Amino acid sequence: MVKTKKLPLFLAVNKCESPDKGLIQASEFWCLGLGEPYPVSAIHGSGTGELLDVVIECLPETTEIIGNNEIKVAIIGRPNVGKSSLLNAFLGEQRAIVSPISGTTRDAIDTFIEYQGKNYCLIDTAGIRKKKNVEYGPEFFGINRSFKAIRRADVVLLVIDALDGITEQDQKLAGRIVEDGRAFIIVVNKWDAIEKDSYTIYDYQKILHQRLHFIEWVENIFISALTGQRVDKILDLVDSAAIEHKRRVSTSVINEVLNEAVRWHSPPTSRQGKQGRIYYGTQVSSQPPSIALFVNDAKRFNENYRRYIERQFRQQLGFKGTPIRLFWRSKKARDIGNANHATKV
Fold it and tell me: Where does the EngA-type G domain start and stop, copy by copy (predicted)?
């Protein structure tokens, strides 16, 4: 399913300071089956030149810069939900250690793969427990690196244990991903362990929407990392979410959506009879898509109306799998009239 890059491997045997005994000491490591052992001394530097010579021979003439083209995918979740198992399922081999003991993964590990001609960087992370249960130490720093992995990812896979259901910690993690502005997908793992009938998946999706109602725009997929069920479909969803996350929409299209939205539902009016008015909108950035809305007074638009406008953008423009940010900017009408690109709504 997935191609992994096969890299040259050189076995360096350290602490071989003695020029006479170094070769004899290193020869004992032929039994590892990793090829010729190179005796070196990190302290004295002996043998490092010979090792460097053979390494340089394997380097390409043109160095490929890793990190510009691949999609970065962070695998996030609570301990023991199957994050490392999912990584192994992507690779088709036991690359990451899988254990029922929580805390097996302590660091964020990058793995580069190729799938259908596209490059991906999969970031396996430490399980994130509730803050009150985490003591200062290796787990604390591992969780911090998990949060950093979210921020540097293009798409996040939030892995949920189908047997445990959607926990409070899952909700907090979903909120954290939205706050960081990352595209993401909900991956319900261990689906093979659930007793099912014709309605099971629909009932579970209903629970997902109830418990995670604030991210109804996120795609979800039910998989088994153990059996490989539907794992091959995850990267297709990743591609779609990454595209939406980077997407840009022209100002004219944004204002067409605003015109239609205001026509169906006028902005609220205050008790003093003052009504909110949207002058125009424009996209100011992507990753995530961010739209500035210039209005007469931002305070006149309550949360219900702001959510209504966001729903209209999603219904008309998509943005499936990515958060969008709306910035409500108060602006005087005479300033709007001076803007050449302004479109009154």
Answer: 71-246
**DSSP secondary structure code for residue 269 in this structure:** B
Structure tokens at 202: 């629909």
Q: Give per-residue pLDDT as tens, 310-321.
A: 999 999 999 999
- Burial (CB < 10 A; 0-12, 13-18, 19+), residue 130, is exposed
Other CB atoms closer than 10 Å to residue 153's CB: what's the count? 26
Largest CA distance in the chain: 95
pLDDT tens digits for range 50-60: 888 888 888 76
User: What six digits make up the tokens of 39?
Assistant: 């005796």
In this structure, which amino acid lies at residue 230?
R
What is the per-residue pLDDT across 189-198, written as a single tens digit (0 to 9) for each?
A: 999 999 988 8
- Separation CA 345–CA 340 (nearest Å): 15
Which strands, in side-by-side order, build the sheet including 3-4? 3-4, 109-115, 118-124, 71-77, 155-161, 183-189, 220-222
Tell me 267's DSSP state.
P
Q: How far apart are CA 123 and CA 171, in angstroms?
A: 21
Report the amino acid identity of residue 253. V
Residue 76 in contact with residue 158, Cβ under 8 Å? yes
User: What distance in Å separates the CA atoms of residue 320 and residue 289, rounded to the nearest whole number?
Assistant: 11
| CATH numbers and ranges of domains, the chain | 3-57 (no CATH), 71-246 (3.40.50.300), 251-337 (3.30.300.20)
> Which H or E run includes 73?
strand 71-77
Distance CA 195, CA 204 (A): 12
How many whole angstroms separate alpha carbon 317 and alpha carbon 272? 35
Cα gap 258→240, rounded to integer Å: 25
Distance of CA 154 to the CA centre of its chain: 5
Query: Are residues 26 and 38 in contact, defined by beta-carbon separation less than 8 angstroms?
Result: yes
CA separation for the pair 262, 199 (Å, rounded)? 39
